Amino acid sequence: MPLEEAGIQEQITFEKELKGRLFDFIYGCALRDAILQLSFRGEKKWIYQVDEAKKALKKYIDKIIFENGFSSQAEHDAFFSAAANRICGAINGYSGKPLETCDTFSFGNAQKLINMTVKHFYTICYSNTMLRRNFQFCHCPMDGIMLQWVWKNYVDQEQKTRAERQRELGSSFCDSWGGENFQNAELPDRYRKFQEVIRKWAAKKGYSPIEFDFIVWESKD
Known about the structure:
Order of helices and strands: HHHHHHHH
Number of domains: 2
Strand content: under 5%
Number of strands: 0
Structural class: mainly alpha
Distance between the termini: 56 Å
């Protein structure tokens, strides 16, 4: 077989087989984070079988990786919200789930699934820094560590009093993220505040929100 023809065949094989397996692997890793411990308390194995949820997330990821990302924060956030809605709808409406399942796959679960998938895929920038721009509008995963970190640093970063912090972020800001849910099909208020703070602080250091997550998690400052 000529080298050129062999190269084409290898590409076809990658597209049909390995590429899908790579996404499945990252999806599985992110889904474990999304339903870890009390963030989803019921039987969990069946969630991995909900193909419609995986398809909704793949459409979002493919736009970032293969379609040069989004042109604005508003465009990204609308696409993100739609993906989260589709994921929750697919999982909560799945006919194959155990009859005793009573937990709801919430926005909190969906944002962790989406954002952790993005975090895994961002690692391709290790060898191709030009792709950083494709991730510029992506969100920072909201979890207990990051909520506590924002709360701890808000007074100094924003030059606010503790009373102002409580009023602006809300006294429940550091509560568990797993139960977070949609509000009239819009992003939850706490999630929106969290992303705005992260985006502002990240920009001061020249990072995107997803890059800032790496910085905070690896420094533990």
